[in-house]
Each structure stands twice: as C-alpha cells, then as structure tokens.
Amino acid sequence: MKISFNGACREVTGSCILIESGETKFLVDCGMFQGNSSNKNLEDFSFDPKEIDFVLLTHAHLDHCGRLPKLFAEGFCGRVYSTAPTRDLTEIILLDALKVAQIEGRLFCAPLFTESDILSLGNFFTCLKYGEEKSINENVRIRMRDSGHILGSSIFEVWINDKGKEKKLVFSGDLGNPPAPIVNDPEFISGADAVFVESTYGDRLHESKEQGIEVLRQTIQETIKKGGVLMIPVFALERTQELLYTLNDFIENGKVGDISVFLDSPLAIKATGIYKQYADFYDKESKELISKGDDLFDFEGLEVIRNEAQAGKVDKTMPPKIILAGSGMFEGGKIKGYLKKYLGNSANTLLIISFQPKGSLGSNLLQGEKFIEIDRAKIKVKAETKSIFAFSSHGDRTFLVNWIEAINKPFPKKIFIIHGEEESSLSFAQALDGISKGDSIIPKYKEFYEI
Ligand SMILES: [Zn+2]
Question: Ligand 1: distance of its center to the CA of 319 in Å?
C-alpha cells in the first residue's frame, strides 16, 4: 500500500493524504493551504482527480475541506464520506472562503470553482453516524469516531484488504481539547497498524479550562465596572459557540452583571444555526440543558448583527458592552473596524482567545505595542490587551501522547505525525519516543511511503 502526503506536512494547513492499495485510490481530506503556503493551492494535484474513488472528510475547517471544489472541478466524481454536520458546515465555510477571496482579489483555485459548484457539493456526500461501519467497496471498510474538535468532526478507522492481508489505518483528523462544552470528548481508539496524528500543539501545554473561564468572567466584571467595551475576536466554528455557551451560563446564572453582547460575524451566525440543527451530536451536559428548555446560544442582552443596517446598533448602545466579531486571527471579518473605534480608549479591553502567528497584528498587540496600523490608519493603543488560550479546540501535548498511548492492541508500527509546525511535530515525536515501540515519522510535502 502506498501513502502520499499532499499537505499539512511540517505545517498546519492543506491536509490531504492519498492512499493507494491495489485498484483503490482514496483521499483523507482535501484542505486548502493558508497563510505563507497559499501559493500551493495553485499547484496541480500530484495525482489525477479522475482516478480518486472517494474522499474521507474529517471535518469542515477550510484547511481540511478547502480544495474539494477544485478536486470536483478537475474530474473527481466519487462520494465524500463525513458526518451530516460536516457536510452542512463545509458548504458555508467554502462559500465564505470564496467571498473573502473575491473581496481581496485573490484567485485561489478560481475560476476553477464558483458559488453554484459549492452549492451542488452536498449531493456528493454520504453521511454516516459515529460508530457506524460501512463497506465502501470489497476491499475497504470505514468507521467514524468522534474527535471532539468541532461539531461533527471525526477520527476515521479504515480497514483495507491489501493483497489479501487486512491492515487498519487510523486518521486522527484534528483532536479536541477536553473537557469542552457542547462537543463530546475525543474518543480513544483501540489498535491500528498505522496512525496519522495531528500535532498542532505537540510542543505545548494548555492552561486549565476552569482558569480560562474565570479570567473571562473577571474581565467581563472589570469591563462593567469601567463602563468599557470588551472586544473578543472569534473564529466562526466552535470558538463562537463555546463563548456563547459560556456567556449564556454567566448571564443566566447571575455570575456577571448586566451587559449587552453583540455577535457581529455573518459566518458565525450561520454556523450557530447549523449547530442548533444537530443537538443529537452534543455532549450529555448540553443535551440536559436543552431538555430543561435552555437555548445554549441565546440569552438576555444578546444581539445578533445580520446586516449593515443592524451594525449601527453596536455603536449606538452605551457601554458596558461585549463585541464578538470575526475573525479570530484578525484576517477579514468585522473585528478590525471595532479595533479602529475602540482601541484608543483606556476603559476598553481586547481579549484574544486564539493562536496569533509571530509578527501578526494580534501578536503585536499582545506584545504591548502602543502604536499600530490598521488599513493605513495609525492608532494609539490605550485599551488593555489580554489573552486566554484555554479555549483552544486542539488537544495539547499531554493529551496527544495519551491518545497515542491508548492505541495498544496492537500498538501501531508506524506513527505519521502531521498537521503541526516543524518544531511542534519534532517535539511531539520526541515525546512519543518514551512510549513508542514503532516508528514515528514526520513526512515532508509530496513524500510517499510503502507500508
Ligand atoms: Zn480543525
């Protein structure tokens, strides 16, 4: 069996693995490259899309699903296997990416795909439930397990009859950071011949969730006391829903005082709508709250900004107020407009809850820069900048090591470490040295292995 790595090698974007066994060829994910690697989206695939039999899609983040339309446009006509929430979230994520690319004049994969291509993608999906086994053809069987990263995210167990011998491959997708609200904890897997594991935080440990939630609560209380504006840049998937869930708890249980909350992110609003349709994918605590009549993502004081006409409400409302706006890394979205308005006032606070790449606007603000430039406007920063990283939706180094250690019947002979910056993957490989009886491999882009 031949395995080729077509992305997310020593970096975190562009996930795409090709497996070839006998006559069968399939992909696990077909994600977009982002940031410094964006140019790779313009390269030809190193395989013929017409020859791919099917795709296993772990989840709806752009770095896992973003090149699917390109794959279809270039002749792929097989099925995409995922959960139902992944299918629905993939559609809104791709439509948003197309819109952002058009606004910014970037022609990523375009004109290879259009809005109507994306809208017809859903017809090519076959949706399965967690735990359900499915024979795809006479040589391949799959089962999805919950990876606890975002709603509908999956680990894939794949059994392949390779020249008369059955081999089990496990693809972790992105693994969550338990305990997290709404989603279940990531499932542990028993036994594999080879594992493909993400390593986003393979070199780091997260602060505890309770600590992070308490810092958020205190920050809101300080904002109320100062009569200020609390700006929180958010990602549309999971981070927004987790924050709304936490604010719902704070406000409905009297853990903070009265405060207006605005959600100004059209993508996050759409994603929250899809979350509401799939309550059967929630964890036990969330299902219990719903059965008592609570709406997890709605509470008194929350205003959702759906269009430009409503946006004026945010400015007209007197502080104290909280503004959640995209995007989490200050790329696109509405957050920059709010920074321009509110960073110059010492009563206000910017609370960063997502990873910020070195040299980026978010990173500079966290370093305490007093003057920044946004869209050519110079701004003197008087607002306080704080950070909480407990809301990460990726497991840390300890969790990843435990997850691998649990795959012990049999323990995998090969562990392919993917989806992490080089230092992070290397550090994770070192951590695995202590427990691993097999090989840890950090593949390079376009490398292939026979197993
Ligand atoms: Zn992800």
Answer: 34
Side-chain-facing half-sphere of 49: CA atoms under 13 Å: 16
Distance 14 CA to ligand 1 centre (A): 11
**How far does residue 396's CA lie from ligand 1's centre (Å)?**
14
In the listed set 338, 357, 387, which residue is the last one of a domain according to the structure?
Answer: 387
**Which candidate, 188, 261, 196, 174, places its Cα nearest to that of 224?**
261
Q: What's the 65 CA to ligand 1 centre distance in angstroms?
A: 10
How many Cα neighbours within 13 Å face the side chain of 128?
26
Retrieve residue 106's tokens. 């970037």
Give the CATH number of the domain where residue 76 resides: 3.60.15.10
Would you place residue 21 in the very low, low, confident or very high pLDDT band (cuts 50, 70, 90)? very high
Number of domains in the chain: 2
Supply the range of the domain harboring residue 288.
209-387
Residues 443, 368 share a domain: no
**pTM of the full predicted structure?**
0.93
Question: From ligand 1's centre to the CA of 198, what distance in Å?
Answer: 10
If asked whether residues 375 and 439 sit together in one domain, one would say: no
Domain co-membership, 215 together with 200: no
The pLDDT tens digits of the residues spanning 93-144 come to 999 888 877 766 655 545 457 888 889 899 999 999 999 999 999 999 999 9
